[in-house]
Amino acid sequence: MKILFTFPGQGAQTPHMLHQLPDNEITKKILATSSETLNEDIFKLDTKEALQKTRAVQLCILITGIVYANLLQDQGVSPDFTSGLSIGAFPAAVFAGALEFTDALNLVSLRGELMEKAYPQGYGLTSIQGLLQKKVESLVASVNCSQFPVYVANYNDEDQFVIAGSESAMLKVAELARKNGARKTTKLAVSVPSHCELLSEAAKQLAEAMEKVVLKNPRIHYLSGSTARAINQPNKIADDLAYNMSHPVYWHDAMVAAYERGARLAIEIPPGAVLTGLTKKVMEQGDAVSTCQNGLHNVVMLAKELSQEQ
């Protein structure tokens, strides 16, 4: 049985998430490395006020993901694939062995700053559930213009999408979506218009910074959430990480690719459980579980039980 670790994106954060990490030597070492690398007290990043900033959110998600992935590995659960949604691609690349954790910390810090600077206010993300792709794309195209920029950002499922753009444009699309039968539209806890061309300049600046970082061939298959393909070349992983903020996310396709490659257990690494719901729909003969919902011990026991059955 092949195992997939999935790492969530922005929006999964919760106040005090770093303070609530398991108290053990693995956690202490990762937290100490984080503070030393960033030259700051990382425990100041997870307050409710601090998490209003994109940089703090993304760093907290990166650190939390690396802690829990290492805890699972320490208890005998290792993945065959890693994949991350948006900022989740960074811990996915780190745990796959392609990117050093210290380099990821510095890059994610810069990533968050670039995104904040590009759109400090008035922009974000909104989810739309219950409409098919063509209808969502049509509604977005009917609103998108220089005054009301809006794009389809995430293709999460066959009837679940995320749009990115100005708040006024997203409100227009959400209203049209509800009139056309959408089950639900939700403004997400993300303050920047991720995964669209509005962030193309910020992505170029991050790519320039990544040129100074040395990546390695991954020891675990790294599955891109942007292309839904496994990437093994270091330079292509670097491009994937740098430009994923300006490229749409094809999460459903990525999970289909993992399933077709034999993944039968998808373990969502904290924080969050949204990816588990999306991935369950693909794992027809497998399972998807959230470490947050099920607990670390139960996830470890399930993984070992399923491995013995193979």
How do the strands and helices of this protein lay out in sequence?
Elements: E1 2-7, H1 25-38, H2 54-74, E2 81-84, H3 89-96, H4 101-118, E3 123-129, H5 133-143, E4 150-157, E5 160-166, H6 167-179, E6 184-187, H7 200-210, E7 221-223, E8 230-231, H8 234-243, H9 251-260, E9 263-268, H10 274-280, E10 287-290, H11 291-294, H12 296-309
Question: Can you walk through the features of this model?
Answer:
It is an enzyme of class 2 (transferase). This is Malonyl CoA-acyl carrier protein transacylase. One of its GO terms (biological process) is fatty acid biosynthetic process. The chain has twelve helices and ten strands. It has a six-stranded mixed sheet with strand order 8-7-2-1-9-10, sandwiched between helices. The chain folds into two domains: about 1-120 and about 200-310, Malonyl-Coenzyme A Acyl Carrier Protein, domain 2 (3-Layer(aba) Sandwich), CATH 3.40.366.10; about 125-190, Alpha-Beta Plaits (2-Layer Sandwich), CATH 3.30.70.250. It has about 300 residues and is an alpha/beta fold. Helix 7 runs antiparallel to helix 8.
